From TrEMBL:
It comes from the Bacteria. It comes from Georgenia thermotolerans. NCBIfam families: TadE_Rv3655c. This is Pilus assembly protein TadE.
Length: 51
C-alpha cells in the first residue's frame, strides 16, 4: 500500500495543480472579458474615465 501511494501521490498532486491552474486561467479570462465589455460600454456612452 505504501509503495503504491508513493508512486501515485505525485501524479494526483500534479493533476490537482493543473486543474486549479486551469480554473484560475478561466476566471481571469472571464474578468478580462467583463472589463473589456464595461470599457467599451463606457466609451460608447461617452462616460468620463474613472466612473
Amino acid at each position: 500500500m505504501t509503495a503504491e501511494l508513493a508512486v501515485a501521490l505525485p501524479g494526483v498532486v500534479l493533476l490537482i495543480l493543473v486543474l486549479l491552474t486551469a480554473a484560475s486561467a478561466a476566471l481571469t479570462q472571464v474578468r478580462v472579458a467583463d472589463a473589456a465589455r464595461a470599457g467599451a460600454r463606457a466609451a460608447a456612452l461617452g462616460e468620463p474615465a474613472g466612473q
